[in-house]
Design goal:
Blueprint (H helix, E strand, L loop, with lengths): L2 H14 L1 H39 L4 E5 L1 E5 L5 E5 L4 H8 L4 E7 L6 E6 L3 E2 L5 E4 L11 E4 L9 E4 L17 H5 L18 E6 L16 H9 L3 E3 L2 E5 L11 E4 H14 L14 E6 L2 H13 L7 H44 L1 H9 L4 H36 L1 H7 L14 H18 L1 H8 L3 H6 L3
Parallel strand pairs: 7-13, 9-12
Antiparallel strand pairs: 1-14, 2-3, 4-14, 5-6, 5-10, 8-12, 9-13, 10-11
Helix pairs in contact: 1-10, 2-8, 2-10, 2-12, 8-12, 8-13, 10-11, 10-12, 10-13
Length: 468
Amino acid sequence: MRIFDIIAMGTRNLLRRKMRTFLTVIGVVVGSAAIVVMVSMTVGMNISLDETIASMGDLTVIQINTFNSHQNADGEWEYDENELTDELFQKIKQMDGVEAATPLLVCWQYDFRFYAGRRYRTNYSNLYGVYPEALEHMGITLDRGEMPDADDTDFVIFGPDTVYNFRDPNKVIRNHYKEYYNSDGTRKPPKVDVLTENIYVQAYSYQYPSMGNGMIMGGGSSSGQDRNSRMTKHYFTKVGVTAEDNESDYRWYDFIHIDTMRDMILEQEKAAKVKASESQAYNYEAIFIKATDMAAADAIQAELKEMGLSINSLSDTRKAMQENQAAIQYVLAGIGGMTLLVAAISIANTMVMSIYERTREIGMMKAIGCPISSIKFMFLYEASMIGFMGGVLGVGLAYGLSYAFNNIESLASALGVNTMGSGNLSVIPFWLVILAIIFSTLIGLLAGYIPAVRATKISALEAIKSDS
């Protein structure tokens, strides 16, 4: 028999008993729709989870801090201290999956002042020393000015608020609000345009002379000024101001090259007669790491923990939240699997009943010389078509249910799940549609295999004698 004849005969057999075929297909529709909806809810929850974590920060970013806190198994807070040295940073740079990394060098023992021309200066500065290639990965974007290249050393990036720190030390300000704000409450422009002025930074000390242990006790202000005048002035060829971002952690910080920062710390330590073994110039407050992707971030974090470092990252938070959702996802997968198993049993039952009803027909096909393979193919075709139609209709039903879950809040609440954000509870990607149809077809094929084999083993003589 030609394949088209077999397909035509199989289609006629399905249509001959429309109600049975319809009820069997309905079973597959329910099973495939359940699987698609359950998987789509898992996809939706994971997407929403990633979006929630991403709104808190970059999942591929790891920051190791000198001091770190975490909760133990009993829910009590524990505090750890990491020793962040330059040797450790060099090892981190060589790790696989590290796209960019920089230490954050800061020294709270000393003060640093920016100067603009001869008139304006800052009284203090929250100053970080970093490598310029990591700035963009740290989420720093410029509102104006020029971002430094990787090989630039003479650069400074001011925060959107730190540009207001410049003031005339000889001017007495009696009303700070009027000095810096307009009558309508809007902020006046900064006193200094850092992009046009000649800017330099200089280490500054208020307290002298040294006590020989890194601590420096008070001398007069004139003595401090004389000592400060001998500190090196570091001028900048590239200046930028970060964009306004109320959620930024860096809006009150300024950034310069780490080597410039280290030179100023060493200069201060030399003036204070700090021992080389007690120098803070190569001990970092934090190390920032940008991984190539989330998998690399997990691998880097695991390697750092093996080195004995205490780390809290968004990746840890994501894993904990995923574990909390895992129980719900397992329940959903179990429900979908059970419904599809019932559908497979229904297909097998339909095909077995079909064999009993068509025993004489099978015998006559054998008697006229129809190949055994053609008979098996016909039954497998009928079973797979039931699976295919059920899969297609099931996907359509799943889209309807997905729309309902995403737009009717009470349905999601009844299931006891939420998206932890503003995303959709159910998300059906295209790959899931194709996979569901293929899977339903295969379920039908497998469910119909044993009945098809059984049909080929029926004796032609006995089948013709049969009343069925």
